[in-house]
């Protein structure tokens, strides 16, 4: 886990949430779920490429762009690519 965190730091990826769950039937093994933010999509992709060899089972559960204006755009959330209005 420390190597993954170092890579995220090197590529200027901000970790906003981390959650760990034990893997049932596998003592002392855990799954980690993380939320993160980034400013540069290319550095983000480089970070993912650097992390993949360190992890047994890597899954990206979704990506989306956060906007502070009137609209929020979903750019890659599985099959749910849509534009939705943010009323706030």
Write the layout of secondary structure elements.
Elements: H1 2-10, E1 14-22, E2 30-37, H2 41-51, E3 71-73, E4 83-85
Antiparallel strand pairs: 1-2, 3-4
Helix pairs in contact: 1-2
Account of the protein in words:
The chain has helices at residues 2-10, 41-51, and strands at 14-22, 30-37, 71-73, 83-85. It has 88 residues and is α+β, with helices and mostly antiparallel strands. It has two domains: 1-57, Alpha-Beta Plaits; 60-88, no CATH class. A two-stranded antiparallel sheet has the order 1-2. It has a two-stranded antiparallel sheet with strand order 3-4. Helix 1 (2-10) packs antiparallel against helix 2 (41-51). 3% of the residues are buried.
Defining key terms:
two-stranded antiparallel sheet, 2 domains, disordered C terminus, alpha+beta, globular, 88 residues
What average pLDDT do the residues reach? 77
CA distance, first residue to last residue: 37 Å
Tell me the name of the CATH homologous superfamily of the largest domain.
Answer: ACT domain
- CATH topology of the largest domain, by name, is Alpha-Beta Plaits
Shape estimate: globular
Total domain count: 2
Low-confidence stretches: 71-88
Residue share in helix: 10-25%
Widest sheet: strand ordering:
1-2
What's this entry about, in short?
Helix content is 23%, strand content 26%. It is built from 2 helices and 4 strands, in the order αββαββ.
């Amino acid at each position: 886990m420390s190597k993954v965190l170092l890579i995220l730091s090197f590529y200027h990826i901000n970790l906003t949430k981390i959650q760990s769950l034990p893997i049932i039937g596998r003592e002392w093994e855990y799954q980690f779920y993380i939320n993160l933010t980034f400013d540069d999509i290319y550095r983000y992709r480089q970070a993912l490429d650097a992390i993949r060899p360190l992890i047994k089972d890597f899954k990206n559960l979704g990506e989306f762009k956060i906007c502070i204006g009137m609209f929020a755009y979903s750019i890659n959330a599985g099959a749910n690519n849509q534009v939705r209005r943010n009323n706030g």
